[in-house]
Design a protein that fits this description.
497 residues; alpha+beta; 6-stranded mixed beta sheet; 4-stranded mixed beta sheet; 10 helices; 31 strands; globular; disordered N terminus
Length: 497
Amino acid sequence: MNSRYFIALLLISQFVVSFGQTASDPEMPYFPTNHPRMVAEWEPATAVLIAWPLSIPHKLVVELAKDIKVQILVEDLKAKQDAIKWLTKWGIYPDRIKFITAPQGIDVSWTRDWGPHAVFNPDGNMLLADGKYLYATPQSGLACDDSLTFLYYNDKHEIALTKTDDKIPEYVASANDFDMVSLPFSFTGGNVISDGQRSAFSTCIITNENRYTGVTDEKFFKDARKILGIENYNIISNFEDKGIQHIDCFMKLLDEERIFVMRPPADHPARAQYEGIVTHELSKLTNAFGRPYQILWLDTDRYHEDELAAYSNSLILNRNIYVPLFGIPQDSVALNQWRAAMPGYTVKGFEFIIAKEPALRPQVKEIYEGIGWDAGDALHCRTRAIWDPNMIYISVNRIPGTVAKAAIYPLDVIIKDYSKGSLSPESLKVMYRIKGKEEWKELKLNPSDIPDHYKASFQGGQAGVTIQYYVTAHSNWGSNATMPRTAPQGFYEFKID
């Protein structure tokens, strides 16, 4: 085992066992809909939040505005007028934009980090959950108890405070007419991944950061469970020799069952660290359905010295995936791997060449040279979804990819209509076909005794046959949903052995 990974593993192993996993109530379904539920990235969104002046390429703004409404933070009327001038020049219609006027601090560009998380409370109302964002920005070495340093200090070498940015979520909540809950702990967005059920992932700098501000590990996990419904908090080792250790630059949760992990080239000094985390930590975890996660590799490469292109720092937003590009041959490989992993999604890549951008924040020009993305800060860091409070939520307990021949193959599905309307019973279906056929057939989803829980069964088939399927739902208020989100282009499948 690589020596630096072994040291980090020793420091984290007892910590994960003690606090990272909690026993689930055996009588509960795999998603208890009467509990708080933190939203996952791939769930339905109505808008995306960015800051002005820009810290992202303007071509990305143009594409975002085609796909979804864009909420833009501006500091004052002058900034709003400047934004309107450029947006008009780029052909973005006013109805695609919503401006939010709010004070701006040094970290305003990083809407991911200070931005609010979305959580549904037990009554089915969506709240914005606002973590403490006190400093800009903690970083450490590999050890989970390493001394923290910070990216910004003032002239007296005091840690720069981010009180201004910490208050922006209040303006976002007000502009969207959302209620907000203040989290009693730091919850830096780039280091938080939710599966939309009861699990979350962070690197161990998150607990280090909270201890620094006086929040014990026990209190952090207790409050995350109580407010956000996170029963299984998977804390993994840090992955950078020195850095902010944000998990979105190491891995991406694609859905409840699959993890996309960055893989450095074989001769890169971080390769053993990344593989060690997968082998000794991620591969031992179980997903919401009690099965090991499927781990897929997202191959990366150097773009400057030993700096790695952060392809995992991408944004999944409804049926689109936005990927940062670094001007190297590996870019095309990463795009293809994203497309293979997420069938039906439109995958779009974006270079960020500083010299070609007309409306950048001066701070971005000061920090970056040449390329506006870097290994620890890319596209995901500077965007933040605004999720749909009236979404239809669907979670499918998939049939394993290969099954033995049997009389039936049961399927369990959770469907929750947060619009407070009613689901159309005839719309609750499993669409299926034999691989190689074009026509989809349907199975009715029948409610069980558990709220929001539905069942269907596939009839047994011949050995060697592969069944493809997806789930649909429709609300009487007009909302439609499928799972996978990109169905019928995207679907699940299982093969009869």
